[in-house]
Amino acid sequence: xxxxxxxxxxxxxxILVGCVGGDRVLFSVGPPGTRKSLYAKVCxxxxxxxxxNKSGGSQTASPKY
Length: 65
Ligand SMILES: [Zn+2]
Hints:
The protein is of the alpha+beta class. The protein has a domain at about 20-50. The protein has one helix at about 35-40; strands spanning about 5-10, 15, 25. It has a three-stranded antiparallel sheet, with helices on one face. The longest helix is centred in the middle third of the chain and has 7 residues, at about 35-40. The radius of gyration is 12 Å and the shape is globular. The relative contact order is 0.21. Zinc ion binds near residues 11, 43, 46 and 52.
């Protein structure tokens, strides 16, 4: 049972859940990656409500200020 693709309006990425080998993340530009690369590249830098991947990141960033 594959879930429908999730799209983050803030990061402009699309996440295909349940792909072979894990979730596939389609960036607006560049080759597709994984959720890990997504958090590292995009969602990590976004601290706004509405980012669908924000809750997915289990890593807690230390305060920068
Ligand atoms: Zn996002």
